[in-house]
Amino acid sequence: MDFLRRFWTGHTVLSNWAVLAIGFVVILLFSARGVGFDGSQWAALIGVTVGLAGLCSWIISWE
């Protein structure tokens, strides 16, 4: 637990990125589960979603 606390305080943008990426991917999987994408389409969507989470955490860090 101490490792997570040190990581969170030492790498705020990276830890925010991880939390946002997990949340975004869960929402993506839940909302698009019945669409019928194949594996490469899912991989592309998840990759773009993780990139979007990175951009969001970077924008949040501007404050």
**Overall tally of domains:** 1
What is the H/E string?
HHH
DSSP strand content: under 5%
Give a short account of the largest sheet.
none
Measured as a percent range, the helix fraction is: over 70%
What structural class is derived from the secondary structure elements?
A: mainly alpha
Cα-atom radius of gyration: 14 Å
Q: Outline the low-pLDDT stretches.
A: none
Average residue pLDDT: 91
- Principal-axis shape equals elongated
* Number of separate helices: 3
Q: What's the number of extended β-strand segments?
A: 0
The N- to C-terminal Cα distance equals 27 Å
Detailed description of the structure:
- The protein is mainly alpha-helical and about 60 residues long.
- It has one domain.
- The protein is built from three helices and no strands.
- Helix 1 (about 1-10) crosses helix 2 and helix 2 (about 10-30) packs antiparallel against helix 3 (about 40-60).
- The two termini are about 25 Å apart.
Identify the notable features of this structure and list them briefly:
mainly alpha; 3 helices; 63 residues; 81% helix; single chain
